[in-house]
Amino acid sequence: MGTTGLALPWETRISSVPRERENRVETSEGLPSHASQSAAPGAATQASSEDAELAERCRTGDLGGYERLYALHGARMKNVARNLLGNPVDAEDAVQETFLKVQRSIASFRGQSSFATWTYRILINTCYDARRSRVRKREVVNDDSEDSPRAEPRAPGAHPSLRMALERALQGLTKHQRDVFLLYEVEGFHHAEIAGMLEITETASKNTLFQAKRNLRQVLEPPRSTGAQGAR
């Protein structure tokens, strides 16, 4: 991973309590959260209507539609890409590539998911392609560069902060667990949205998040000392 690190809000808790009962991560560019939908019953309908209108504008080649898509989701897309790829330069490239792919394949959008979810799915697949390309390049040059997504081989004491500890712990997750954790806990997407982006079921998303949290707790929580108890 590059020295820029992950774009994480480090107050995020590794908790087994379902996040649906808590306030979700909110970003002005993001999709509506559970809290905002319950506070304004018509918000979901309005968002759905705007999503459909935006898709139609882009389908007809209206450049204003793409500008609106970027205004609504550009910042969040960059954050998602940075978390998946590890640095802002690659994230910027992935977002630009995503918009090119959206323009080229907009005719294939059938409305089976929201236009926003479809766009994020393209972004995530673009990030996956970038990660695979990194692996192939490292295999060719046999160079463990700083772009490596693996944790740096340093002693735990070299990273006293919670931020670095969590970054290292995240690297111990499977790629799938890490992606679901970042999309849900950090970016604030709902399981239904994640399911559409990763093309999995909501149940699979929930189970993967549970496994990710369990693994993170095992790494981050200090081991219980049995020495004192055995001396008694």
Describe this structure in a few short sentences.
This protein is mainly α and 232 residues long. The chain is 62% helix and 0% strand. It is built from ten helices and no strands.
Q: What is the number of helices?
A: 10
Strand content: under 5%
Helix and strand element order: HHHHHHHHHH
Instruction: List unreliable stretches of 5+ residues.
Output: 9-39, 148-160
Number of strands: 0
Largest sheet: none
| Mean pLDDT, all residues | 76
| Tertiary shape | globular
State the separation between the terminal residues, measured CA to CA.
45 Å
The helix fraction, in percent, is 55-70%
Round the Cα radius of gyration to an integer and report it.
20 Å
Protein structure class: mainly alpha
SSE arrangement:
Elements: H1 34-39, H2 43-59, H3 63-85, H4 88-105, H5 115-141, H6 162-171, H7 175-186, H8 191-198, H9 202-220, H10 227-231
Helix pairs in contact: 2-3, 3-4, 3-5, 4-5, 5-8, 6-9, 7-9, 8-9
Structure description:
- The structure is a single chain.
- The protein has 232 residues and is mainly α.
- 62% of the residues lie in helices and 0% in strands.
- It is built from 10 helices and no strands.
- Helix 3 (63-85) packs across helix 4 (88-105).
- 27% of the residues are buried.
- The model is unreliable at 9-39 and 148-160 (pLDDT under 50).
Output the keywords:
232 residues; mainly alpha; 10 helices; 0% strand; globular
